[in-house]
Design brief:
This protein has 735 residues and is of the alpha/beta class. Helices cover 28% and strands 16% of the residues. The chain is built from 22 helices and 27 strands. The protein has a six-stranded mixed β-sheet, sandwiched between helices. Strands 17, 18, 19 and 22 form a four-stranded antiparallel β-sheet that branches. The radius of gyration is 26 Å and the shape is globular. The two termini are 37 Å apart.
Length: 735
């Protein structure tokens, strides 16, 4: 793996020194020179036409300088995506969010980076270098806030919470890029900047309007975390407008915040076709040359499209100075130099990564581990874990034996996918009968066939939900979709009635029912929540989703996933999809009763919490505060607990969240074992965003609650909370 190879980097110094001594006549080829000097040398040797060509996502070769063609567009949302190679495929991003496991996601990032380097090496060796999806610049992760469960692309995100999104997104960036300040393992990208989360059907034309409070409290924190703390090397601008300007030409988002407040030095890419939208859809610019010039002036460096081909015209018309093109190109080339693309082969610490690294046993084992951690047990009346005395099991549902659904979107392809039906058959010695019963939104078998199949069964496992073909990105999902889906989004969050009808028939027959839901978003299934014997939310769980489902159902794995989104009870609880205000949205601002709350998840054991204790004497505004809580496994099984820390500000004026997640720890406890868990709260964790967008840590009371989920009632909140009284003057934090 790349982390291991890094140990050998100092030993490369001598080889690189020797290579420098014999480098070609061009200084940019000399690995001993600073990258800034090498970039400057290369830019100085290019014509305007060559510079412009290098700022489009497919960059042609410059043969006179020995520069090969390169394609910037690559994907690795949950494994190396779309490359055509057989790679390790992890759970979809929303399932990864349910792990609440930043360490596990960082390790996944290291695995993806290693496989990406192996794919890149093989492509170059076989003459396919420069092809799309074979490169080292990845447009991952998607850290938009999943504000509304109807958004089809929400499955690509880390859920509805800004803190969790930033925590997990930063972990993936560290895994992908490594932690070296100079060299990159691969390049990651935070997208889609900013205030972007559907609807898909209007993403090319809508103008997002949010208050300064919502902008800084909800939509920007994860981007700030990845840029300022995670040192992500790229940011992708969104399609939509924000306060009248396209996001890829926004004074506020790009100039003032990203390049100004956050001092971002990496490259900015447009989303694909987003600059075309300037003049085709938003109608904010008269033509392609004006759009291209304005994007570069706003420090967009790369066009995923063809509009930047008009930059030469823009220079000729006086719309932009060539020096501004040079600055953008220098940022792009800096990334390629940091990736080692212009270094001699003997200086490349990754050159020996073999193609056989793909799908190694260790990589596949980690995919299964994250699948285990991602699945959330929502209901269990005692039927789980299943015993091995069952004689006849009927497996039904549209996702029981559909390998494609497990891969989500923006995915790669593994050599083998294990479906729930296959996992169940491998787990039990019982007779396993399969009948689809229902498709996603229509019956697949007559009621008589269902009745005949379940007759005499000890158990029915219904694996239903929805599909990435129904929810997803515009153009990729929603084609010929049934009622309830439109353009990749959903028009209702309810589980399609056709599936519920089959499960009702099973219950009427008196057969125990386990419902396994696969989806990339929150689904409302009130009947199942009241009548199924058990419910497991399995998301789109990757290549070994079927193994993980069976392991959890039979108790070989104790479930530990937690919901990264609120499961609302009904459509009536949702505000207008087009409204970007956070009022009434997500657990932070929703004051109704959900079907299942954010952070919720059951285990086969139980945990008890002592009252948390503040360990910082006389805490003051603007300073860190340390908190500890003792957690004990009070059951008879070993289990992993996801310890969550929420803060609230009872005396502060509105606007403010009801409560907000500010700490996560995964702990494994044996029966009867206890462990003290420590949290360090930064000044930003203890602060509140003000109506004008400023983040202020003020004197007063901060209530801290610790538990395996949000508090279920006032009594639990009181027992598991402590109050921190901050002293001193109000401190305004850096934006």
């Amino acid at each position: 793996m790349i982390r291991i190879l890094r140990l050998a980097l100092p030993a490369l110094a001598a080889l690189c020194a020797a290579a420098a001594a014999h480098s070609q006549e061009y200084p940019f080829r000399n690995p001993a020179l600073p990258i800034e000097e090498r970039v400057g040398d290369l830019v100085s040797r290019l014509t305007l036409e060559e510079k412009v060509a290098q700022m489009q996502y497919f960059t042609p070769a410059i043969e006179r300088l020995g520069i090969p063609a390169y394609n910037w567009w690559n994907e690795c949302l949950h494994g190396v995506g779309r490359s055509g190679d057989r790679v390790t495929v992890f759970p979809q991003a929303i399932g990864l969010a349910a792990t609440f496991d930043p360490a596990g996601i960082e390790r996944m990032g290291r695995i993806i980076a290693a496989e990406a380097r192996a794919v890149y090496n093989e492509a170059n060796r076989s003459g396919r270098g420069g092809m799309q999806y074979k490169g080292l610049t990845f447009w991952t992760p998607n850290i938009n806030i999943f504000r509304d469960p109807r958004w089809g692309r929400g499955q690509e995100t880390y859920g509805e919470d800004p803190y969790l999104t930033g925590l997990l997104g930063k972990a993936l960036v560290h895994g992908l890029q490594g932690r070296d300040s100079l060299r990159l393992d691969v390049s990651a990208c935070a997208k889609h900047y900013a205030v972007h989360s559907g609807p898909e059907s209007s993403r090319h034309v809508f103008d997002a309007e949010v208050s300064d409070y919502d902008l800084w409290d909800t939509y920007l924190p994860a981007f700030r975390e990845l840029v300022v703390e995670g040192r992500v090397s790229a940011v992708m601008g969104a399609y939509n407008r924000f306060r009248g300007q396209p996001c890829c030409a926004s004074d506020l988002l790009l100039d003032e915040i990203l390049r100004g407040y956050w001092d971002f030095r990496g490259y900015v890419t447009s989303d694909c076709g987003a600059i075309d939208d300037f003049f085709r859809n938003h109608r904010t610019h008269p033509d392609a040359a004006t759009a291209a010039a304005d994007a570069v002036i706003h420090t967009v460096d790369l066009d995923c499209g063809s509009v930047f081909s008009h930059l030469t015209e823009a220079v000729q018309r006086g719309l932009i100075d060539e020096r501004e093109i040079d600055e953008g190109l220098a940022r792009l080339l800096t990334i390629r130099f940091r990736l080692g693309m212009f270094d001699p082969a003997e200086c490349d610490p990754y050159a020996t990564l073999p193609y056989s690294l793909l799908e190694s046993p260790a990589h596949k084992a980690h995919a299964l581990k994250l699948a285990h951690e991602s699945m959330v047990l929502l209901r269990n009346d005692g039927i789980l874990p299943l015993g091995h005395d069952l004689r006849r099991i009927v497996v039904m549902g549209p996702n029981a034996d559909n390998p494609e659904v497990q891969l989500g979107n923006y995915n790669g392809f593994p050599s083998r996918i294990v479906t729930p039906l296959e996992g169940i058959r491998a787990k039990t010695g019982a007779e396993v009968v399969y009948l689809k019963g229902a498709d996603y939104a229509a019956a697949a078998d007559a009621p008589e066939a269902v009745q005949q199949a379940v007759e005499g069964a000890d158990l029915v496992i219904f694996v239903g939900g929805i599909s990435p073909r129904l929810e997803g990105e515009e153009g990729d999902a929603g084609k010929d979709a049934p009622e309830g889906f439109f353009g990749g989004d959903r028009t209702t969050i309810r589980l399609p009635e056709a599936q519920t009808a089959v499960m009702k028939q099973i219950r009427e027959a008196g057969i125990p029912l386990v419902f396994v839901c696969m989806s990339g978003s929150a689904v409302a299934f009130p009947w199942e929540a009241a009548h199924a014997d058990a419910i497991l939310q399995a998301w789109y769980g990757g290549q070994d989703a079927g193994v993980a489902v069976a392991d959890i159902l039979w108790g070989d794995c104790n479930p530990s996933g937690r919901l990264p989104v609120t499961f609302y009870a009904d459509d009536s609880q949702l505000p207008d999809f087009n409204d970007y205000s956070m009022r009434g949205r997500t657990y932070r601002y929703f004051d109704g009763v959900p079907l299942y709350p954010f952070g919720y998840g059951l285990s086969y054991t139980t945990f008890a919490y002592d009252t948390p204790v503040c360990r910082t004497p006389q805490p003051r505004t603007g300073e860190e505060v340390t908190l500890t809580v003792r957690v004990r496994n009070t059951g008879d099984r070993t289990g992993e607990e996801v310890v969550q820390l929420y803060v609230s500000h009872p005396d502060a004026p509105s606007p403010k969240p009801i409560r907000a997640l500010k700490g996560v720890r995964r702990v494994t406890l044996q029966p009867g074992e206890a462990q003290s868990v420590e949290f360090t709260l930064s000044a930003r964790d203890l602060a509140l965003v003000q109506p004008d967008g400023a983040t202020v840590c003020s004197p007063g009371v901060v209530r801290c609650y610790t538990g395996g989920s949000q508090p279920s009632d006032a009594g639990q909140e009181a027992r598991q909370s402590c109050e921190i009284r901050l002293r001193g003057k109000a401190v305004t934090l850096a934006r």
